[in-house]
Specification:
It is built from seven helices and no strands. The chain is an all-alpha fold. It has three domains: about 50 residues, no CATH class; about 60 residues, no CATH class; about 40 residues. Helix 3 runs antiparallel to helix 4.
Length: about 160
């Protein structure tokens, strides 16, 4: 509890200090970060407490079924299905890469994460979040991106220490 309170105070201080330095920006969006953190905590605790006996693939399926309609509506209202979208050859390649990322980076990761919650504790399972920046840095390196290791590692260490 103390860690959660300290983290919330630290995040609030960062937001309020930024508001003083750059008052012309909209900082209400920072509330989405706080809200997503709270929802993440609810997610792992609900899975552990109420869905302990449900298969991880069933939990993941339920998650994706629930977001299908809103996601489809976003596509419809963003003119994704217009003929202009498909005039470029790169669109098909891009859709393929998004599909690969969805299957391997989201669906399979969600199933493994749900399984991890069930076989361990919510606190341990949610601690994998600390590894996400490291994995992102490694994927960037594999992709050939130019990384400034001092800044990258400092940001990663700041991230781990702040949470």
């Amino acid at each position: 509890m103390l860690g959660v309170v300290l983290g919330f105070i630290g995040a609030s201080m960062l937001i309020f200090n930024s508001m003083e330095l750059n008052p012309d920006q909209n900082y209400l969006y920072a509330g989405f970060v706080v809200l997503s953190t709270v929802m993440y905590a609810f997610n792992v605790n609900i899975i552990k407490h109420y869905l302990q006996d449900v298969k991880p693939i069933a939990i993941a399926t339920g998650n994706f079924v629930a977001i299908f309609i809103p996601a489809f509506l976003v596509l419809v209202f963003s003119d994704f299905f217009s003929s202009q979208t498909y005039e470029h050859d790169a669109v098909y390649t891009s859709i393929g890469y998004v599909a690969i990322l969805a299957v391997f980076g989201t669906v399979m990761a969600k199933i493994i994460f749900n399984n991890l919650i069930q076989i361990s504790s919510p606190v341990f399972a949610s601690s994998v979040t600390y590894l996400m920046p490291l994995v992102a840095l490694l994927w960037g390196l594999v992709d050939g991106e130019l990384l400034d290791w001092t800044k990258g590692w400092l940001l990663y260490l700041f991230y781990v220490v702040s949470i």
